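Recall that a protein's primary structure is simply its ordered list of amino acids. Everything else, from secondary elements to tertiary packing, is in principle encoded there. The following example makes that idea concrete.
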Amino acid sequence: MNSTRLPESTKRILCAIGWLVLTAGNSSAQAQWAVVRTDELAAPEANQAAAADERFVYAIDSAVIAKYDRATGVRVALSSGPAKHLNSGFLWKGKLYCAHSNYPQKPEKSEIMVLDLETMVLSTLKNFGDYRGSLTWVVREDGDWWCNFARYGKDNAQTVLVRLTEDWQERGTWTYPESVIKDLGQYSISGGVWREGQVLVTGHDRRLVYRLKLPKSGNVLELIDVLPSPFPGQGIAVDFTANGIIGIDRDKRSVIFAELKW
């Protein structure tokens, strides 16, 4: 059968099955992990990413962030302040830190923006300028900043995870395995979090989570396995519940809550 004649949806299903077969025999996977959907919240702003704490859910669109009451699902506030392409967000010390870029403009410029959760005002924390690509996700881990700078199209193999100190000095850089890059097509890594000493990342539009770890040597992240996901790519964040993780379904404009199980 000529695979080029298959519908795109069928090809993606076959690709996902291939990934599962490929990683099922990986002895380094150890405990089997799963990402299990637990709940959903309708939010028109759920176009790029989402984050949540115990009381509120933050739906992230390119230029605005909406704050929702977690118990009732009612929108209670919208952000103010200029933004062009917010990509993801993570909660830390009572504020929401967001990856922001000028994508698809060239040269690619990036910054970390911070949302004051009381005033809902967005401001710039760190302006990277033209530096390594478009910032798609940023988190804190082990006292440092971990920033993913994406490249797209024929250059997406240059996508890099950068570890930066408090004063923005590079402590290390890692690219992604060739097998992961090929699976992304023309897109790149859109979301990422640290869990249990491992990096969980998402692409642009596939219902997959790639589980990786830092290598003992070299600068290429090691793929542990690929997990079926309830959200089709885009930004993800740790949810402040037991083993929680949060993402979006941009076609449905919904925030998706899930639980990591192992």
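Residues 32-261 form a domain with the Neuraminidase fold (CATH 2.120.10.30). The chain has one domain: 32-261.
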